[in-house]
């Protein structure tokens, strides 16, 4: 399941057991990416706090469906199959239109993600790709392009944070050999109105 | 100071003022990497939670100097001079030996690790390098050297998380143009 030891829900004790309860799916299990943290429960807490606030928080103004699409793109660019599959399912449930979701996926897999979007979202795709692949080449013009396309500074921050978060999450998986085996796809801590609710469920 | 609008500690109100509390430095301001979050204070909370859980946590078993060295090295590889500077300040404080700190700095920022590191530290830094530069190519064998040097799985996780957090922090800085400008060094 992964390259380092992890602790199953049934064996978890103490702090880990408490954290597992907070992030549990309806079937009583926990996603593998979260189990990767089991030998250092505090790192699971840090991961969830960032994940929840960046992707599923009422204070964000960009639709979750598009933030998820950026996550799918970044995960594909980093070849993180685990995050790609999970967040594709998450995005598809938020988009509520399988054909549209498939269209976005096909464009990402053809390395032409821009083609599936219009207007300012096209600009966000360009920014996300550059920040993922060549972070040291970023220039102010990359942010100006987002502003010119119609995003305000708070929204630019949201886009940046999603891309940066996936730089973290993808490497957690890729560096420790996480796989989707045994996972239920498309579950997320999607109760955006409550930042302290980390429970994973399917939005539909 | 950055490419997007930020709010100074002296102008912060409500939730942001609350988030800034405890982070204000002697000059009355917070570090630019923190104020960059000011338009979405909840992202500052997420950032701090991850930072504390990866780099500054008392439950980590590896020495902090190794964790900070990973952060400096990853930042250097990503071309993030802001993060290199901050983590080097932390390393210097931990080591309390400026000569040794300078040797580490040169080794980490000129990618000549062997001049200052060996054994498990060298293995950990090599792992962090590959994870930063070519994450798609990671294989199970990349953990081998760390294991041979006596690292347990929990310690490998600590190294992984330090490198991953830095990938996030570097992109926050590089993608929004955060600089040291206006920060009073101490």
Largest β-sheet summary of chain A? none
Q: Give start-end ranges of low-pLDDT stretches of chain B.
A: none
Return the structural class of chain A.
mainly alpha
Helix content of chain B: 55-70%
Give me the Rg of chain B, rounded.
17 Å
Segments of chain A where pLDDT lies below 50 for 5+ residues? none
Number of contiguous helices of chain A: 9
What general outline of chain A do the C-alpha atoms trace?
globular
Q: In total, how many beta strands of chain A? A: 0
Q: Biggest β-sheet of chain B: count, sense, barrel?
A: none
- Helix and strand element order of chain A: HHHHHHHHH
Name the beta content range of chain B: under 5%
Oligomer: heterodimer
Describe this structure in words.
- The complex is a heterodimer of chains A (204) and B (186).
- Chain A has helices at 14-23, 32-35, 41-55, 64-77, 81-95, 98-109, 119-133, 140-149, 153-176.
- The model of chain A has no long low-confidence stretch (mean pLDDT 95).
- By secondary structure, chain A is mainly α.
- Chain B has 186 residues and is mainly alpha-helical.
- Chain B is built from 9 helices and no strands.
- Classes of the chains: A mainly alpha (204), B mainly alpha (186).
- At the A-B interface, helix 3, helix 7, helix 8 and helix 9 of A face helix 3, helix 7 and helix 9 of B.
């Amino acid at each position: 399941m992964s390259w380092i030891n992890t602790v199953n829900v049934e064996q978890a004790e103490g702090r880990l057991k408490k954290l597992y309860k907070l992030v549990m799916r309806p079937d009583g299990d926990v996603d593998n990416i979260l189990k990767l943290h089991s030998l250092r429960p505090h790192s699971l807490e840090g991961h969830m706090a960032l994940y929840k606030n960046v992707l599923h928080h009422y204070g964000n103004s960009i639709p979750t469906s598009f933030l998820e699409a950026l996550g799918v793109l970044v995960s594909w660019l980093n070849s993180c199959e685990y995050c790609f599959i999970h967040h594709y399912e998450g995005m598809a449930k938020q988009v509520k239109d399988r054909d549209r979701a498939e269209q976005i996926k096909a464009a990402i897999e053809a390395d032409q993600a821009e083609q599936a979007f219009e207007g300012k979202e096209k600009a966000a795709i360009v920014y996300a790709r550059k920040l993922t692949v060549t972070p040291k080449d970023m220039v102010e013009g990359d942010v100006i392009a987002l502003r010119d396309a119609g995003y305000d500074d708070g929204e630019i921050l949201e886009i940046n944070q999603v891309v940066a978060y996936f730089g973290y999450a993808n490497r957690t998986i890729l560096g420790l050999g996480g796989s989707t085996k045994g996972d239920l796809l498309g579950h997320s801590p999607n109760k955006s109105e409550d930042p302290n609710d980390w429970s994973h469920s399917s939005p539909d | 100071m950055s490419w997007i609008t930020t709010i100074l500690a002296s102008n912060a109100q409500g939730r942001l003022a609350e988030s800034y509390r405890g982070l204000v430095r002697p000059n009355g301001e917070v570090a630019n990497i923190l104020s960059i979050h000011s338009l979405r204070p909840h992202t500052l909370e997420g950032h701090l939670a991850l930072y504390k859980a990866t780099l500054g946590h008392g439950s980590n078993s590896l020495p902090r100097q190794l964790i900070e060295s990973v952060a400096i090295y990853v930042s250097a590889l990503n071309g993030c001079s802001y993060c290199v500077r901050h983590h080097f300040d932390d390393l210097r404080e931990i080591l309390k030996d400026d000569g040794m700190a300078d040797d580490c700095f040169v080794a980490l920022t000129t990618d000549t690790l062997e001049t200052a590191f060996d054994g498990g530290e060298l293995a950990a830094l090599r792992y962090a390098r590959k994870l930063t530069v070519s994450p798609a190519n990671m294989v199970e064998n990349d953990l081998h050297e760390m294991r041979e040097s006596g690292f347990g799985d929990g310690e490998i996780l600590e190294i992984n998380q330090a490198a991953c957090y830095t990938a996030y922090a570097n992109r926050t800085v590089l993608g929004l143009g955060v600089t040291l400008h206006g920060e009073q060094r101490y």
